[in-house]
Each structure stands twice: as C-alpha cells, then as structure tokens.
Automatic annotation (TrEMBL), chains A, B:
<keyword id="KW-0456">Lyase</keyword>
<protein>
    <recommendedName>
        <fullName>Tryptophan synthase beta chain</fullName>
        <ecNumber>4.2.1.20</ecNumber>
    </recommendedName>
</protein>
<feature type="modified residue" description="N6-(pyridoxal phosphate)lysine">
    <location>
        <position position="111"/>
    </location>
</feature>
<dbReference type="InterPro" id="IPR023026">
    <property type="entry name" value="Trp_synth_beta/beta-like"/>
</dbReference>
<comment type="similarity">
    <text>Belongs to the TrpB family.</text>
</comment>
<dbReference type="GO" id="GO:0052684">
    <property type="term" value="F:L-serine hydro-lyase (adding indole, L-tryptophan-forming) activity"/>
</dbReference>
<dbReference type="InterPro" id="IPR001926">
    <property type="entry name" value="TrpB-like_PALP"/>
</dbReference>
<feature type="domain" description="Tryptophan synthase beta chain-like PALP">
    <location>
        <begin position="74"/>
        <end position="408"/>
    </location>
</feature>
<keyword id="KW-0822">Tryptophan biosynthesis</keyword>
<comment type="subunit">
    <text>Tetramer of two alpha and two beta chains.</text>
</comment>
<dbReference type="GO" id="GO:0030170">
    <property type="term" value="F:pyridoxal phosphate binding"/>
</dbReference>
<dbReference type="GO" id="GO:0004834">
    <property type="term" value="F:tryptophan synthase activity"/>
</dbReference>
<dbReference type="InterPro" id="IPR036052">
    <property type="entry name" value="TrpB-like_PALP_sf"/>
</dbReference>
<keyword id="KW-0663">Pyridoxal phosphate</keyword>
<dbReference type="InterPro" id="IPR006316">
    <property type="entry name" value="Trp_synth_b-like"/>
</dbReference>
<dbReference type="Pfam" id="PF00291">
    <property type="entry name" value="PALP"/>
</dbReference>
<comment type="pathway">
    <text>Amino-acid biosynthesis; L-tryptophan biosynthesis; L-tryptophan from chorismate: step 5/5.</text>
</comment>
Length: 426, 426
C-alpha cells in the first residue's frame, strides 16, 4: 500500500456535503436573543451575506463549490492522505493508521477551507470589510489570507493575552494586511464595558466575538465572519472528508474509527460528516479536559458570545461566561460546540472523549519523531486518541483502520513544545 | 492553463541529475589542506561515507535515488509547480511566472532533499551519529528530521547569535531529538581557541563548520554532514528541477528565465542544473548585497570553514574570515559558493545578481499579498528578481516564461517580517 495517497486537481470535490437533511432529528433553530423566538433569516442579514444564510438553513444534501473558491483551494488542495506506517511500527500495532494532512495551506491549518468561501460570498454580495475574532490566531490568519485574496479589508479582534504572548500569528495577519486589535478594546461598547470593570482583562473568545459582531452591525459594508460552530462553516470543511473518502477508496480500505479534535467542531465535522451515514464506523470527538464542553457541558440553548449579542444556539455548553484555563491548544478553548455536532453526540452517533494536555504533547512528540511532521497542539488531541485506539487494537489483535484529521502544523507553536520539553507544562 | 501543476507519486524522479559530466571544463579538484595536492578520496572517509564520496566525484550523468530515500521524499514530494497568476495580474505583466514550492516539507524548506539522502547513506554504512552546523536553523532542522527517521543521533553546532535569537528552530531540532550546541563551544579545540580570544564571540557558520568537522573526526561512528556547496549535496537537490521539467512540459511551456537564491548554491542548483544544457535560457543566481560572493568575491581556492580544517575548494569567495552582517536571510550568509556553480558563473553560463535586503522583503510582502504564501527571507531574493524580470518583460511587451524556486516558507521568520513592517530593517 502506498505511503501517501494524492488526488489529481480534477478529483477535488466540486460540492460540499450538508449534514442537515441527514440528522437524526431536525436541528433546533437558533433563537433571537430579543424575542426568544426562532431567528428570522432577514435579521441575520445585518452580519451575514444572503448566500451563507441560505446555506446555514439549507436542506440540500450537496452544495456546489463555486469556481472562484475552487481556484484558490487549488493552491494547497487536494491535501494528502498519509498512512502513518512509522507510527504503526513504533506502536507495533496491527491497526492501519491514516491521517488527512491540512497543514500545507498557506496559513498552516484547515481554517482557510471556510475562510475562502466566506470571503468569496461576502465579496460577491458587495461587502468590502469583514470582522472576526481569534484566539491563538489560526482562524484570524486564515480570514486575513482569504480577505486579501478577494481585496477586502479585515479586522481581527484578538484575545489580548494571545495578542501579547503570540506576536507571530499577529505578524502573519498583518502581512496579509489585516488590522489586528487586542480585545477587549475601546473600539466597541462591549469592549469598553469589560474594560470599565477590569482594565487589565486578559480577554476571551466570547468577548472578542461580541466586539467583532458589534463592529459588523454598526459599520457599513461590513459583515462578520465566524470560524467554526455554524452550519455553513462546517459545511465548507467537508471538502476534507469528501477527499478522504476518495483516497480511502484508492487505498482499498474502509474506516473503522474516525477521529478529530474539537473546539467548535469544524475540523472534526470536515473529516467526519461525509462518513456519518456509514454503518459500523466509530466517530470520536476529542476535546481538552480543561474545556470539556461535550463531556461535561449541558445540552441547552446558550449564547455564542459573552455579551449576549449572538443568536442563542442549542448546543453543549459550559456557559457563556466560562473562561477556560490558558492551555496551548488555543483553538480548542471555547465554551460551546457546533449545534449539529452537539445533536450527534446527544444521539450517541458521535462519542466524545476528553484528554489531558500533557498526554497530548507526549503524543505530538511521538508523532513528530515517527512521522516527521510537527503537529499543532490542537491536532495532538486527535493523535493522542488515535494512538490509544491503535494500542487497544494491538491488545485485541484487531486490524482496525483508524483515520484522523491532522488539522494543522505546529510551526507557530514551538514555544508550547519548548515548555513541554522543559517540563513546564501540566 | 492550470494554476497548479502536480505530479503523481509514480512520476517522482527515480534518479538525480549529476552536472559534473556536463560542465564546460573539468572541475578543479578539492585540495588537501596538509599537502595542497588533490585530496585523496580515502582521506575524506574520516568524515563522509564511501557512497557520498563516490557521488562527489562521479562522472555518471544520472544517479539512482534509493527506494528508502524515495519513500521518505513521498511524505511531501512531488512538490507543486504553481503559476503565479495573481502576481502576474498585480504586475500587469505579459510574462508567465511559475514557482516551484519546496515549503511543504516537514521542516519547511528544500533542505531535507539532501538531508534524507545523506542520513540514509551514512546509516547504511554503519554510521550512528552525524554532526553538522547551522546558521538560522533551516539546515540543522532538516538534518535533525532526517537522522530521526533513520534512528541516528545528531549534533548540531548552531551559530551562537542564532541559538539565542531564534529559539524556535532550535526547539524544532530538539523535537526531532537532535542535540543543539551554541557555537563556538567548549566541546572542541576549534571552539575553545575562538573563545580564548573572544569569550563573547557571536559565532559564524565558518566556526560552526570547524567544530562539527572536528567532532566527526574525533568521534567513533560519527560522520559530518554539509547542507550545501559540495557536489553530492547539489546532486540530491536536482529532484526539484527534474520534477519541474515534467511539470513545465505538462503546462506546455519552455522556460526563458530561471531564478534561484544562492547561499552555498543548493536550492539554485536543485532547480536549475537539470535545465543547464538547454539553449536560450537565462539562469540568474541571486545573492544578498551584504554577502556578495558571486558578484564581488574572488575565484580561487579557499577553505570551507574558518579554522581551515576542510579541503580547499576552488570557488568564488569573500575569504574564510569574512563575517557577513546579520541579515535575516541567514541561509545566504556564507563566504563561499558551490564549486560547480562558481565555474558556471565564471563561464557566464549562470549570471549572478546581488539585491538589497529591504527590496527582498518588499518583494516578499507583495508575494504574500498576491499569492498568499509567506516566503522565507532567503526565497524572497528569488522573488525580487522574478518581479524585476517580469517588469522588464512588460516594458518590452514580451511573453517571457519565468520560473523560480520558492525554497521555503517564512513561518519561522515572522520576527524578520515584523521588523520590516515596523520600519526597523535597512
């Protein structure tokens, strides 16, 4: 069997997979925070373009990928599916481990799959400026990259601690001409309200979302863009799984276990959703123990942001005011989860598992040593569980096929690995 | 025409191209520093494996790539050839600009093409440990990556200023289990001699080479590995140009101008050498104004290192004691150049051009804004000249085909871009 399975350009999917028609029950609708009634699509037009609202609600199973988006995807897509033969040998497991590698995109992660699509639809509807929030900077840099390619302006509210501790992702965003603002800021009412109470507030993703949404509402020709959680965001990521489907077919195997890490759910959904109707596959969503939304959260309506400006979503949540400890997998520090993923977990179709930070870095180091690729701290969560499952397969003598999503490289996270190697992590 | 031209796995070259039989005159032999006579191959066995010495002297035009090396290449090869359509539009040039992108390898540059081959041949001949030097860390991280995959030990002498200023490449090397020593160190005589004179010596590539060579000579089962300059190193890089040859054929174009940046010459040679016998192609080697080896150096025998431990090579050199200013393109700070490239420049087959640091960063930013990829500071030298040539083509209304090597991504160099954007560079 080949080590790496590539697809030709013309084998890149020309449509995304929409899970809405295949959910086990209808998705509870987003609620208007002013009325507590189902949100009217028109109201969402204050911050989203019509086409993305349509996709958010669509019941069509497949949605075509526009040529303009495909042209940019081609810069790094199709991405490789790689058999982790060296890791298998190291573990002495009979399992076959495959990973889909999304780290070859210019910003280094899966995030541009949706950033490019969102920038495109906004530009097409005449929007000239996008706002968003970012924690560690993976999403912000993806949107900066995408808006640049469509000649749009971009403002990123970056969680203040990250702004100061992780200057390099900020530089990356600025290289793509985005304006990066430490959040909470004085530029919005939501920001000022926080700063009045606590001038030294370190910020949080919830606060930054409030600022970005407020900015989009109040400014002309400006929309807001979200990097995870919403249906249309997860939809755009399914290009990952649709490619993987063809690649596994070429490899001549059927997956037994599919794994992805979860912050809001977009990289997990991207790999897994196109396989969700397949029988006999175990789907495992991996989250950090320190932000155990799916494993310890409540399934209920909650806000997406701290100030309560967003629609209410039915999801697993730790509460909108939950501030997760500053783990290095910044992309997994979110109080809620995608409503579609939450529903699948509630129905037991997807299993959730929480893992400890130190174990994920150990797994990441083993992966770097065997497969040669240094994974992002977020992705190490998937690796940790892939290793656990491969060892279980070894115990039972089973030739399981394990597939996980390597959502990004760790080249921007070497400080975290340094802390790990120096024994400074807990 | 396609934006990106990919090759299938089975189209990856199965042999390297050796330029020695095609040089315009026989290559002046390396000289033994003790006798000033041509170096006896046996003497090189103190630090190199037999097969690499054979390749260094070989007159065969093609040398097979071993399966074990190809298997690892497949992790990231074949690499894409991309048409820079957005850059062309920005420049409003009739020229067609293509770049070969080597930044998708796990260490992020072209360097593993030879690191993997060198580790393989050494391991095959029973060597258990390799030493080397590194400036900014691109080469050191490539060798750390390669030795890890062949279960070898690796010690990297890293120029002390870089060791302290660029901790992240060091962390990357340590993640792959290499031992990284700031140079000059107390571990070698060469290092101690420098430290006696100047305890605060910032180090240099020449000093670090002396330390690494001495370490290899004095320790059992240890060899030395060089990341550029030597024939066998440039040979291994030709996999780049051999792929590009097939890709340009698929694109249906013939190159008019081919461009690469030059430190020691390996990424330039990698792209260009397979095309060197082609008529009517202009080959441009780009170096920094601050280290103008090819444009202002002397063509004569000189040492590869500062202490004078290496054989003497006939090359363009600024003198073994030349210490280039601390520009950000650390990979281009070397006093000498590959003997084969020097000979081609002397014969006018390859033209050399020196460019200013500030201009290269401006070119890098334009490239990031248009093509979306943030280039390594080394690679921006090639981009700067590609842009210049595309503008010349525009002036003359010529549809030139310009091909350059994008040797690595700039994800580890964001501090340099930050300094540039803040106006701190000169």
């Amino acid at each position: 069997m080949e080590k790496k399975i590539m697809l030709d350009e013309n084998e890149m999917p020309d449509r995304w997979y929409n899970i809405l028609p295949d959910l086990p029950e209808p998705l509870p609708p987003p609620l208007d925070p002013e009325t507590n009634e189902p949100m009217k699509p028109e109201k969402l037009e204050a911050i989203f373009p019509k086409e993305l609202i349509r996709q958010e609600m669509s019941e069509e199973r497949y949605i075509p990928i526009p040529k303009e988006v495909r042209d940019i995807y081609l810069l790094w897509r199709p991405t490789p599916l790689i058999r982790a033969t060296r890791l298998e040998e190291y573990l002495k497991t009979p399992a076959k481990i495959f990973y889909k590698y999304e780290g070859t995109s210019p910003p280094g992660s899966h995030k541009p799959n949706t950033a490019v699509a969102q920038a495109y639809y906004n530009a097409k509807e005449g929007i000239e400026r996008l706002t968003t929030e970012t924690g560690a900077g993976q999403w912000g840099s993806a949107l900066a990259f995408a808006t640049r390619l469509f000649d749009m302006e971009c403002r990123v509210y970056m969680v203040r601690t990250s702004y100061h501790q992780k200057p390099y992702r900020r530089v990356l965003m600025e290289l793509w001409n985005a304006e990066v603002i430490p959040s909470p800021s004085n530029l919005t009412e939501s920001g000022r309200r926080i700063l009045e109470k606590d001038p030294d507030s370190p910020g949080s993703l919830g606060i930054a979302i409030s600022e970005a949404v407020e900015d989009a509402v109040k400014n002309d020709n400006t929309n807001y863009s979200l990097g995870s959680v919403l249906n249309h965001v997860l939809l755009h990521q399914t290009v990952i799984g649709l490619e993987a489907e063809k690649q596994l077919e070429i490899a001549g195997v059927e997956p037994d276990i599919m794994i992805g890490c979860v912050g809001g759910g977009s990289n997990f959904a991207g790999l897994v959703y196109p396989f969700i109707r397949k029988d006999g596959v175990e789907f495992i969503a991996v989250e950090p123990e320190s932000c155990p939304t799916l494993t310890k959260g409540e399934y209920r309506y909650d806000f997406g942001d701290t100030a309560g400006l967003t629609p209410l979503l039915k999801m697993y949540t730790l509460g909108k005011d939950f501030v997760p400890p500053p783990i290095h997998a910044g992309g997994l520090r979110y109080h809620g989860d995608a409503p579609t993923l939450s529903l699948l977990v509630k129905h037991g179709i997807v299993k959730a598992r929480a893992v400890a930070q130190l174990d994920t870095f150990r797994a990441g180091k083993i992966f770097a040593e065997t497969e040669g690729i240094v994974p992002a701290p977020e992705s190490t969560h998937a690796i940790k569980v892939a290793i656990d499952e491969a060892l279980k397969a070894k115990e039972k003598g089973e030739e399981k096929v394990i597939v996980f999503n390597l959502s990004g490289h760790g080249h921007f996270d070497l400080k975290a690995y340094q802390d790990f190697m120096e024994g400074k992590l807990s």
